[in-house]
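Chapter summary example.
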Amino acid sequence: MFKKSKKLLALLTASVLSLTLITGCSSKNEEAELPKEINVTYVKSPLNVPSILEKNDELFAKEYEKDNIKVNWSELTTGPEQTQALAAGEIDFCHALGGTSALIAASNDVNLKIIGTYSRSPKGFMIVTNNDSIKSVKDLKGKKIAGPKGTILHQILIAALKEENMTIDDVEFIDMTIPDASAALEGKSVDCALVAGPAALQSLNAGNKKIVDGEGLVDGIIVIAVNGEFAEKYPQLVERFMKVHEDTLKYMEDNHDEMISKVAKEVGLSEEETEELYKWYDFNPKIDDAEIQALKDTQKFLIDNKMQEKEVKVENLILQVNK
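The structure predicted for these 323 residues follows.
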């Protein structure tokens, strides 16, 4: 009986040691599987305060260096550039991606997950003119309007026209980047420009007139997206990304004047201009029913205007990150 007990004890001890070794090996393998680098998009315009601070103060770099992971920033500023790079595995986080671009990419089977709202800024997107004959949206019929297609600005134009019983076919819309649209307006080769952020403020300060902004027309939602495969493979790295982002938002709240000073230098505006612009933005990262509905409304706009063919279930794109 005693011999049997000793034999059983030896077997149990061996099993425990075996499991311990396996667990230890698994942990080491998991550590070894961590990526050597994380690639994040850097979009500082219109006024992406968190990204400016996170890059310049190396906030993500300091977090991930604990695991010898290097953080690379890529200045891919347009939605299509960001989502194409994400689809190719060249980008892990699209940090400030237009809701329109996220939806179009998802409908084209790009594996992405939305892990937070980056910003909402309907007041920061507007239609401006230097044509004295244009007093309101009603006067846009037949006019040349330049701006980036498939964006929040484009959505504002179509929504504003719809309120006056017009469509995009009632104007001559020219697809241009914001800087090109601003230059075209200055050169009077177009009647109106779709502008946002510093470009909008600079346009108004130059004497141009705002016809309408996005307030009451769109939510102006920008999102934080992650490569779906990356999120599945490294959930803890995604959680830590959002933790750093939330810590940045807390810093912004607690150190307002210092934050404004840092951002003003980066965007080339005075502190007074930066302060004025900052009031247009809400950087709350939450995703709740209101944000989901805003994305659904955006998707309807894209489908109705033939910029998105296949409908996606918005709820399936949301990845709630436990922080």
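To summarize the output: The radius of gyration is 25 Å.
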